[in-house]
From TrEMBL, chains A, B:
Mg(2+) binds at E38, D111, E114. Its cofactor is Mg(2+). This is Ribonuclease 3. The active site is at D42, E114. One of its GO terms (biological process) is tRNA processing. The lineage of its organism: Bacteria, Pseudomonadati, Pseudomonadota, Betaproteobacteria, Candidatus Kinetoplastidibacterium. Digests double-stranded RNA. Involved in the processing of primary rRNA transcript to yield the immediate precursors to the large and small rRNAs (23S and 16S). Processes some mRNAs, and tRNAs when they are encoded in the rRNA operon. Processes pre-crRNA and tracrRNA of type II CRISPR loci if present in the organism.
Protein backbone atom coordinates (compact mmCIF):
# COMPACT_ATOMS: atom_id res chain seq x y z
CA UNK A 1 0.00 0.00 0.00
CA UNK A 2 1.24 3.47 -0.84
CA UNK A 3 1.39 5.94 2.01
CA UNK A 4 1.94 8.93 -0.28
CA UNK A 5 -1.38 10.59 0.41
CA UNK A 6 -1.23 9.94 4.15
CA UNK A 7 2.29 11.34 4.33
CA UNK A 8 1.14 14.40 2.40
CA UNK A 9 -1.73 14.95 4.88
CA UNK A 10 0.63 14.48 7.79
CA UNK A 11 3.17 16.83 6.28
CA UNK A 12 5.89 14.29 6.92
CA UNK A 13 7.79 11.88 4.66
CA UNK A 14 9.11 8.79 6.45
CA UNK A 15 12.74 7.82 5.96
CA UNK A 16 11.82 4.30 7.15
CA UNK A 17 8.28 3.55 6.01
CA UNK A 18 8.26 0.27 7.97
CA UNK A 19 7.76 2.42 11.04
CA UNK A 20 4.61 3.93 9.56
CA UNK A 21 3.33 0.50 8.62
CA UNK A 22 3.95 -0.73 12.17
CA UNK A 23 2.12 2.30 13.58
CA UNK A 24 -0.90 1.37 11.46
CA UNK A 25 -0.95 -2.25 12.64
CA UNK A 26 -3.46 -3.03 15.36
CA UNK A 27 -2.75 -5.81 17.83
CA UNK A 28 -5.68 -7.82 16.43
CA UNK A 29 -3.48 -8.34 13.35
CA UNK A 30 -0.91 -10.23 15.45
CA UNK A 31 2.68 -9.37 16.36
CA UNK A 32 4.43 -7.03 15.84
CA UNK A 33 1.81 -4.36 16.40
CA UNK A 34 1.61 -0.66 17.22
CA UNK A 35 1.21 -0.67 21.01
CA UNK A 36 4.82 0.10 21.92
CA UNK A 37 4.82 2.97 19.43
CA UNK A 38 1.54 4.14 20.95
CA UNK A 39 3.18 4.15 24.39
CA UNK A 40 5.97 6.31 23.00
CA UNK A 41 3.64 8.53 20.94
CA UNK A 42 1.33 9.24 23.86
CA UNK A 43 4.24 10.77 25.73
CA UNK A 44 5.53 12.62 22.65
CA UNK A 45 2.09 14.14 22.13
CA UNK A 46 1.67 15.07 25.77
CA UNK A 47 5.06 16.81 25.79
CA UNK A 48 4.51 18.69 22.52
CA UNK A 49 1.10 19.98 23.65
CA UNK A 50 2.48 20.84 27.10
CA UNK A 51 5.25 23.00 25.64
CA UNK A 52 2.84 24.70 23.26
CA UNK A 53 0.37 25.58 26.04
CA UNK A 54 3.09 26.58 28.51
CA UNK A 55 4.63 29.02 26.05
CA UNK A 56 1.42 30.41 24.57
CA UNK A 57 -0.65 30.85 27.74
CA UNK A 58 1.86 32.41 30.07
CA UNK A 59 -0.89 33.86 32.27
CA UNK A 60 -2.90 30.66 32.70
CA UNK A 61 -2.28 28.72 35.89
CA UNK A 62 -1.36 25.03 36.03
CA UNK A 63 -4.99 23.98 36.66
CA UNK A 64 -6.11 25.76 33.50
CA UNK A 65 -3.19 24.35 31.52
CA UNK A 66 -4.04 20.83 32.68
CA UNK A 67 -7.64 21.18 31.59
CA UNK A 68 -6.64 22.66 28.24
CA UNK A 69 -4.25 19.78 27.64
CA UNK A 70 -6.79 17.15 28.70
CA UNK A 71 -9.31 18.55 26.23
CA UNK A 72 -6.76 18.32 23.42
CA UNK A 73 -5.37 14.84 23.98
CA UNK A 74 -8.69 13.15 24.79
CA UNK A 75 -9.78 10.24 22.64
CA UNK A 76 -12.47 12.18 20.79
CA UNK A 77 -10.07 14.88 19.64
CA UNK A 78 -7.54 12.29 18.47
CA UNK A 79 -10.19 10.22 16.69
CA UNK A 80 -11.43 13.33 14.87
CA UNK A 81 -7.93 14.11 13.59
CA UNK A 82 -7.46 10.44 12.66
CA UNK A 83 -10.68 10.53 10.64
CA UNK A 84 -9.58 13.68 8.81
CA UNK A 85 -6.39 11.82 7.90
CA UNK A 86 -8.50 8.88 6.63
CA UNK A 87 -6.53 6.54 8.90
CA UNK A 88 -9.27 3.89 8.64
CA UNK A 89 -8.22 3.32 5.01
CA UNK A 90 -4.70 2.37 6.09
CA UNK A 91 -5.31 0.39 9.30
CA UNK A 92 -4.15 -3.21 9.45
CA UNK A 93 -6.66 -5.08 11.59
CA UNK A 94 -7.31 -8.73 12.38
CA UNK A 95 -10.27 -10.37 10.69
CA UNK A 96 -12.50 -10.15 13.78
CA UNK A 97 -11.87 -6.43 14.32
CA UNK A 98 -12.32 -5.76 10.62
CA UNK A 99 -15.73 -7.43 10.48
CA UNK A 100 -16.95 -5.74 13.63
CA UNK A 101 -16.17 -2.28 12.26
CA UNK A 102 -12.92 -1.78 14.16
CA UNK A 103 -11.51 0.55 11.53
CA UNK A 104 -13.97 3.23 12.61
CA UNK A 105 -13.74 2.63 16.34
CA UNK A 106 -12.59 5.86 18.04
CA UNK A 107 -10.25 4.08 20.47
CA UNK A 108 -8.44 2.25 17.65
CA UNK A 109 -8.16 5.42 15.56
CA UNK A 110 -6.91 7.49 18.50
CA UNK A 111 -4.33 4.89 19.53
CA UNK A 112 -3.13 4.60 15.95
CA UNK A 113 -2.65 8.35 15.67
CA UNK A 114 -0.53 8.32 18.82
CA UNK A 115 1.48 5.43 17.38
CA UNK A 116 2.11 7.50 14.24
CA UNK A 117 3.47 10.35 16.38
CA UNK A 118 5.71 7.81 18.10
CA UNK A 119 6.87 6.51 14.73
CA UNK A 120 7.68 9.99 13.44
CA UNK A 121 9.68 10.75 16.58
CA UNK A 122 11.65 7.53 16.16
CA UNK A 123 12.13 8.25 12.45
CA UNK A 124 13.38 11.81 13.01
CA UNK A 125 13.50 13.99 16.13
CA UNK A 126 11.28 15.64 18.68
CA UNK A 127 11.47 18.95 16.84
CA UNK A 128 10.16 17.38 13.64
CA UNK A 129 7.28 15.51 15.28
CA UNK A 130 6.36 18.64 17.24
CA UNK A 131 5.82 20.48 13.95
CA UNK A 132 3.62 17.63 12.65
CA UNK A 133 1.57 17.61 15.88
CA UNK A 134 1.02 21.37 15.84
CA UNK A 135 -0.10 21.18 12.20
CA UNK A 136 -2.63 18.43 13.01
CA UNK A 137 -3.89 20.20 16.12
CA UNK A 138 -4.03 23.70 14.66
CA UNK A 139 -7.83 23.77 14.44
CA UNK A 140 -8.27 22.47 17.98
CA UNK A 141 -5.60 24.82 19.31
CA UNK A 142 -7.34 27.79 17.72
CA UNK A 143 -10.70 26.79 19.13
CA UNK A 144 -9.67 26.29 22.74
CA UNK A 145 -12.37 27.53 25.07
CA UNK A 146 -10.15 29.40 27.49
CA UNK A 147 -13.10 30.88 29.32
CA UNK A 148 -14.43 27.48 30.36
CA UNK A 149 -11.11 25.77 30.79
CA UNK A 150 -9.58 28.32 33.08
CA UNK A 151 -12.45 28.49 35.51
CA UNK A 152 -11.75 27.40 39.02
CA UNK A 153 -12.78 23.94 40.19
CA UNK A 154 -15.79 25.02 42.28
CA UNK A 155 -17.33 26.91 39.35
CA UNK A 156 -16.65 24.03 36.98
CA UNK A 157 -18.18 21.49 39.35
CA UNK A 158 -21.25 23.67 39.73
CA UNK A 159 -21.71 23.92 35.96
CA UNK A 160 -21.07 20.22 35.49
CA UNK A 161 -23.80 19.35 37.99
CA UNK A 162 -26.24 21.97 36.70
CA UNK A 163 -25.86 20.64 33.16
CA UNK A 164 -27.00 17.24 34.46
CA UNK A 165 -29.74 18.71 36.63
CA UNK A 166 -28.06 17.47 39.79
CA UNK A 167 -28.29 19.44 43.05
CA UNK A 168 -25.29 21.61 43.91
CA UNK A 169 -22.53 20.36 46.19
CA UNK A 170 -22.32 21.28 49.84
CA UNK A 171 -18.99 22.20 51.38
CA UNK A 172 -18.73 21.30 55.07
CA UNK A 173 -15.99 22.23 57.49
CA UNK A 174 -15.04 18.95 59.13
CA UNK A 175 -12.18 20.23 61.21
CA UNK A 176 -9.95 23.24 61.86
CA UNK A 177 -6.56 22.48 63.33
CA UNK A 178 -3.67 24.58 64.50
CA UNK A 179 -3.21 27.92 66.20
CA UNK A 180 -4.82 31.07 64.84
CA UNK A 181 -1.88 32.05 62.64
CA UNK A 182 -1.42 28.55 61.28
CA UNK A 183 -4.81 26.99 60.71
CA UNK A 184 -5.50 23.97 58.56
CA UNK A 185 -9.01 23.59 57.20
CA UNK A 186 -10.46 20.17 56.54
CA UNK A 187 -13.35 20.43 54.10
CA UNK A 188 -15.77 17.87 52.77
CA UNK A 189 -17.44 18.29 49.41
CA UNK A 190 -20.74 16.39 49.40
CA UNK A 191 -22.82 15.59 46.32
CA UNK A 192 -25.62 13.58 47.92
CA UNK A 193 -27.40 12.62 44.72
CA UNK A 194 -24.29 10.96 43.36
CA UNK A 195 -23.22 9.54 46.69
CA UNK A 196 -19.89 11.30 46.36
CA UNK A 197 -17.93 12.72 49.27
CA UNK A 198 -14.42 14.03 48.91
CA UNK A 199 -12.26 15.51 51.62
CA UNK A 200 -9.33 17.86 51.46
CA UNK A 201 -7.13 19.92 53.74
CA UNK A 202 -5.71 23.37 53.05
CA UNK A 203 -4.24 26.49 54.58
CA UNK A 204 -7.41 28.38 53.76
CA UNK A 205 -11.02 27.34 53.58
CA UNK A 206 -11.13 28.37 49.94
CA UNK A 207 -8.05 26.30 48.99
CA UNK A 208 -9.46 23.19 50.67
CA UNK A 209 -12.84 23.68 48.99
CA UNK A 210 -11.23 24.08 45.57
CA UNK A 211 -9.17 20.97 46.08
CA UNK A 212 -12.16 18.91 47.25
CA UNK A 213 -14.17 20.19 44.25
CA UNK A 214 -11.37 19.15 41.91
CA UNK A 215 -11.39 15.64 43.36
CA UNK A 216 -15.14 15.44 42.80
CA UNK A 217 -14.68 16.56 39.16
CA UNK A 218 -12.00 13.92 38.68
CA UNK A 219 -14.34 11.24 39.98
CA UNK A 220 -17.29 12.35 37.88
CA UNK A 221 -15.37 12.78 34.66
CA UNK A 222 -13.25 9.67 35.03
CA UNK A 223 -16.27 7.45 35.63
CA UNK A 224 -17.68 8.80 32.37
CA UNK A 225 -14.44 8.76 30.49
CA UNK A 226 -13.58 6.21 27.89
CA UNK A 227 -10.78 5.10 30.14
CA UNK A 228 -13.37 3.57 32.43
CA UNK A 229 -15.40 2.16 29.60
CA UNK A 230 -17.13 -0.40 31.78
CA UNK A 231 -19.70 -0.62 34.52
CA UNK A 232 -18.21 0.05 37.88
CA UNK A 233 -20.86 -1.23 40.21
CA UNK A 234 -19.23 -0.66 43.50
CA UNK A 235 -16.07 1.01 44.56
CA UNK A 236 -14.82 1.06 48.06
CA UNK A 237 -11.73 2.64 49.43
CA UNK A 238 -9.46 -0.07 50.72
CA UNK A 239 -6.61 1.16 52.77
CA UNK A 240 -3.58 -1.13 52.96
CA UNK B 1 20.87 31.81 49.16
CA UNK B 2 23.58 30.09 47.17
CA UNK B 3 22.53 27.21 44.97
CA UNK B 4 26.10 26.06 44.33
CA UNK B 5 25.81 22.79 46.21
CA UNK B 6 22.37 21.98 44.81
CA UNK B 7 23.57 22.67 41.28
CA UNK B 8 26.56 20.43 41.89
CA UNK B 9 24.29 17.59 43.07
CA UNK B 10 22.02 18.12 40.09
CA UNK B 11 24.95 18.18 37.71
CA UNK B 12 23.55 21.31 36.12
CA UNK B 13 24.54 25.01 36.34
CA UNK B 14 21.65 27.40 35.66
CA UNK B 15 22.21 30.23 33.20
CA UNK B 16 19.21 32.00 34.77
CA UNK B 17 19.14 31.16 38.48
CA UNK B 18 15.79 32.94 38.92
CA UNK B 19 14.27 29.88 37.27
CA UNK B 20 15.74 27.63 39.95
CA UNK B 21 14.51 29.95 42.68
CA UNK B 22 11.02 29.90 41.19
CA UNK B 23 11.09 26.09 41.01
CA UNK B 24 11.86 26.03 44.74
CA UNK B 25 8.98 28.36 45.65
CA UNK B 26 5.86 26.64 46.94
CA UNK B 27 2.47 28.23 46.37
CA UNK B 28 2.09 28.78 50.13
CA UNK B 29 4.77 31.45 49.74
CA UNK B 30 2.49 33.48 47.44
CA UNK B 31 2.80 34.34 43.75
CA UNK B 32 4.75 33.65 41.63
CA UNK B 33 5.23 30.01 42.61
CA UNK B 34 6.42 26.76 41.07
CA UNK B 35 3.19 25.16 39.86
CA UNK B 36 3.46 26.11 36.19
CA UNK B 37 7.04 24.81 36.14
CA UNK B 38 5.80 21.65 37.82
CA UNK B 39 3.20 21.20 35.04
CA UNK B 40 6.00 21.51 32.50
CA UNK B 41 8.46 19.36 34.44
CA UNK B 42 5.98 16.53 34.94
CA UNK B 43 5.73 16.17 31.17
CA UNK B 44 9.50 16.57 30.65
CA UNK B 45 10.12 13.80 33.19
CA UNK B 46 7.48 11.51 31.70
CA UNK B 47 8.97 11.95 28.22
CA UNK B 48 12.58 11.41 29.32
CA UNK B 49 11.70 8.23 31.23
CA UNK B 50 9.52 7.00 28.36
CA UNK B 51 12.35 7.33 25.84
CA UNK B 52 14.79 5.65 28.19
CA UNK B 53 12.50 2.66 28.80
CA UNK B 54 11.42 2.39 25.16
CA UNK B 55 15.02 2.21 23.96
CA UNK B 56 16.41 0.03 26.73
CA UNK B 57 13.65 -2.57 27.02
CA UNK B 58 12.93 -3.32 23.40
CA UNK B 59 11.37 -6.67 24.24
CA UNK B 60 9.00 -5.42 26.96
CA UNK B 61 5.42 -4.77 25.86
CA UNK B 62 3.55 -1.53 26.42
CA UNK B 63 1.85 -2.83 29.59
CA UNK B 64 5.22 -3.63 31.13
CA UNK B 65 6.66 -0.29 30.01
CA UNK B 66 3.70 1.56 31.57
CA UNK B 67 4.17 -0.19 34.88
CA UNK B 68 7.91 0.44 34.85
CA UNK B 69 7.33 4.12 34.17
CA UNK B 70 4.65 4.42 36.84
CA UNK B 71 7.01 2.94 39.41
CA UNK B 72 9.68 5.49 38.50
CA UNK B 73 7.64 8.69 38.40
CA UNK B 74 5.51 7.97 41.48
CA UNK B 75 5.60 10.43 44.34
CA UNK B 76 7.67 8.23 46.63
CA UNK B 77 10.46 7.84 44.08
CA UNK B 78 10.53 11.56 43.41
CA UNK B 79 10.48 12.43 47.11
CA UNK B 80 13.40 10.09 47.71
CA UNK B 81 15.49 11.79 45.03
CA UNK B 82 14.44 15.19 46.37
CA UNK B 83 15.62 14.19 49.86
CA UNK B 84 18.96 13.03 48.52
CA UNK B 85 19.31 16.46 46.89
CA UNK B 86 18.49 18.09 50.26
CA UNK B 87 15.72 20.07 48.58
CA UNK B 88 14.08 20.78 51.94
CA UNK B 89 16.99 23.12 52.75
CA UNK B 90 16.20 25.27 49.72
CA UNK B 91 12.39 25.29 49.66
CA UNK B 92 10.60 28.61 49.97
CA UNK B 93 7.39 27.94 51.89
CA UNK B 94 4.71 30.12 53.45
CA UNK B 95 4.76 30.48 57.22
CA UNK B 96 1.93 28.00 57.75
CA UNK B 97 3.52 25.26 55.64
CA UNK B 98 6.88 25.89 57.27
CA UNK B 99 5.52 25.46 60.78
CA UNK B 100 3.54 22.33 59.92
CA UNK B 101 6.64 20.59 58.53
CA UNK B 102 5.86 21.20 54.85
CA UNK B 103 9.53 21.10 53.90
CA UNK B 104 9.59 17.36 54.51
CA UNK B 105 6.19 16.57 53.03
CA UNK B 106 6.66 14.04 50.19
CA UNK B 107 4.11 15.74 47.90
CA UNK B 108 5.82 19.13 48.22
CA UNK B 109 9.27 17.61 47.64
CA UNK B 110 8.12 15.58 44.64
CA UNK B 111 6.35 18.55 43.03
CA UNK B 112 9.40 20.71 43.59
CA UNK B 113 11.68 18.18 41.91
CA UNK B 114 9.39 18.15 38.86
CA UNK B 115 9.44 21.95 38.84
CA UNK B 116 13.26 21.84 38.82
CA UNK B 117 13.19 19.57 35.77
CA UNK B 118 10.81 22.06 34.12
CA UNK B 119 13.16 24.91 35.02
CA UNK B 120 16.21 23.14 33.58
CA UNK B 121 14.30 22.43 30.35
CA UNK B 122 13.33 26.09 30.07
CA UNK B 123 16.88 27.17 30.90
CA UNK B 124 18.48 24.88 28.31
CA UNK B 125 17.05 22.09 26.13
CA UNK B 126 15.39 18.72 26.33
CA UNK B 127 18.69 16.95 25.71
CA UNK B 128 20.30 18.66 28.68
CA UNK B 129 17.47 17.99 31.11
CA UNK B 130 17.29 14.36 29.93
CA UNK B 131 20.90 13.90 31.04
CA UNK B 132 20.12 15.43 34.44
CA UNK B 133 17.06 13.18 34.86
CA UNK B 134 18.95 10.02 33.95
CA UNK B 135 21.70 10.93 36.44
CA UNK B 136 19.15 11.42 39.22
CA UNK B 137 17.25 8.25 38.37
CA UNK B 138 20.26 6.02 37.78
CA UNK B 139 19.83 4.06 41.03
CA UNK B 140 16.11 3.52 40.45
CA UNK B 141 16.70 2.63 36.80
CA UNK B 142 19.26 0.03 37.79
CA UNK B 143 16.97 -1.49 40.41
CA UNK B 144 13.87 -1.90 38.26
CA UNK B 145 12.09 -5.12 39.10
CA UNK B 146 11.42 -6.30 35.57
CA UNK B 147 10.17 -9.66 36.74
CA UNK B 148 7.29 -8.16 38.69
CA UNK B 149 6.62 -5.26 36.38
CA UNK B 150 6.30 -7.25 33.23
CA UNK B 151 3.86 -9.82 34.55
CA UNK B 152 0.45 -9.92 32.97
CA UNK B 153 -2.49 -8.28 34.73
CA UNK B 154 -4.17 -11.48 35.96
CA UNK B 155 -0.99 -12.69 37.64
CA UNK B 156 -0.35 -9.28 39.17
CA UNK B 157 -3.89 -9.03 40.50
CA UNK B 158 -3.61 -12.48 42.03
CA UNK B 159 -0.36 -11.57 43.81
CA UNK B 160 -1.75 -8.23 44.95
CA UNK B 161 -4.75 -9.94 46.55
CA UNK B 162 -2.71 -12.79 48.04
CA UNK B 163 -0.34 -10.31 49.67
CA UNK B 164 -3.36 -8.79 51.44
CA UNK B 165 -4.89 -12.16 52.26
CA UNK B 166 -7.92 -11.44 50.09
CA UNK B 167 -9.71 -14.24 48.22
CA UNK B 168 -8.83 -14.58 44.54
CA UNK B 169 -10.95 -12.96 41.85
CA UNK B 170 -13.54 -14.85 39.86
CA UNK B 171 -13.84 -14.31 36.11
CA UNK B 172 -17.37 -14.79 34.82
CA UNK B 173 -18.51 -14.88 31.21
CA UNK B 174 -21.41 -12.45 31.08
CA UNK B 175 -22.06 -12.62 27.38
CA UNK B 176 -20.72 -13.94 24.09
CA UNK B 177 -21.79 -12.04 21.00
CA UNK B 178 -21.27 -12.50 17.29
CA UNK B 179 -20.90 -15.40 14.88
CA UNK B 180 -18.41 -18.21 15.52
CA UNK B 181 -15.58 -16.58 13.56
CA UNK B 182 -16.13 -13.19 15.14
CA UNK B 183 -16.99 -13.62 18.78
CA UNK B 184 -16.82 -10.92 21.41
CA UNK B 185 -16.45 -12.05 25.01
CA UNK B 186 -17.87 -9.99 27.82
CA UNK B 187 -16.14 -10.89 31.08
CA UNK B 188 -16.71 -9.77 34.63
CA UNK B 189 -13.92 -9.80 37.19
CA UNK B 190 -15.41 -10.11 40.67
CA UNK B 191 -13.54 -9.52 43.93
CA UNK B 192 -16.35 -10.04 46.41
CA UNK B 193 -14.42 -9.14 49.54
CA UNK B 194 -13.61 -5.70 48.17
CA UNK B 195 -16.99 -5.21 46.54
CA UNK B 196 -15.27 -4.66 43.20
CA UNK B 197 -16.70 -5.74 39.86
CA UNK B 198 -15.17 -4.73 36.58
CA UNK B 199 -16.37 -5.65 33.13
CA UNK B 200 -14.56 -5.80 29.82
CA UNK B 201 -15.09 -6.99 26.27
CA UNK B 202 -12.52 -8.63 24.01
CA UNK B 203 -11.98 -10.77 20.95
CA UNK B 204 -10.84 -13.63 23.14
CA UNK B 205 -11.80 -14.72 26.60
CA UNK B 206 -8.20 -14.26 27.73
CA UNK B 207 -7.96 -10.70 26.38
CA UNK B 208 -11.19 -9.68 28.12
CA UNK B 209 -10.07 -11.28 31.39
CA UNK B 210 -6.71 -9.48 31.25
CA UNK B 211 -8.40 -6.18 30.58
CA UNK B 212 -10.92 -6.66 33.42
CA UNK B 213 -8.06 -7.64 35.75
CA UNK B 214 -6.16 -4.49 34.79
CA UNK B 215 -9.18 -2.34 35.64
CA UNK B 216 -9.39 -4.02 39.03
CA UNK B 217 -5.69 -3.33 39.66
CA UNK B 218 -6.20 0.31 38.69
CA UNK B 219 -9.05 0.63 41.17
CA UNK B 220 -7.18 -1.05 44.01
CA UNK B 221 -3.94 0.81 43.51
CA UNK B 222 -5.49 4.20 42.80
CA UNK B 223 -7.60 4.09 45.95
CA UNK B 224 -4.38 3.54 47.87
CA UNK B 225 -2.30 5.99 45.90
CA UNK B 226 -1.23 9.37 47.14
CA UNK B 227 -3.14 10.88 44.27
CA UNK B 228 -6.33 10.02 46.10
CA UNK B 229 -4.99 11.26 49.39
CA UNK B 230 -8.42 11.54 50.97
CA UNK B 231 -11.25 9.38 52.19
CA UNK B 232 -13.48 8.29 49.40
CA UNK B 233 -16.52 7.05 51.21
CA UNK B 234 -18.69 6.13 48.31
CA UNK B 235 -18.20 6.05 44.65
CA UNK B 236 -20.86 5.25 42.16
CA UNK B 237 -20.70 5.11 38.44
CA UNK B 238 -22.78 7.89 36.97
CA UNK B 239 -23.37 7.55 33.31
CA UNK B 240 -24.17 10.74 31.44
Amino acid sequence: MSFLELERSLGYKFRNSNLLELALTHRSNGSPHNERLEFLGDSVLNFAITIFLFEKYSDVDEGGLSRLRASLVQQNSLATIASELNLSRYLKLGEGELKSGGCNRPSILADCLEAIFGAIFKDSSFNEVKIVIEKQFVKLLNNLDLKTMCKDAKSLLQELLQSRKISLPRYLIVNINGAAHNQRFEIECVISELNIKTKSVGDTRRAAEQSAAKMAIDIITSSNSNYLDFNLYNYKSIKA
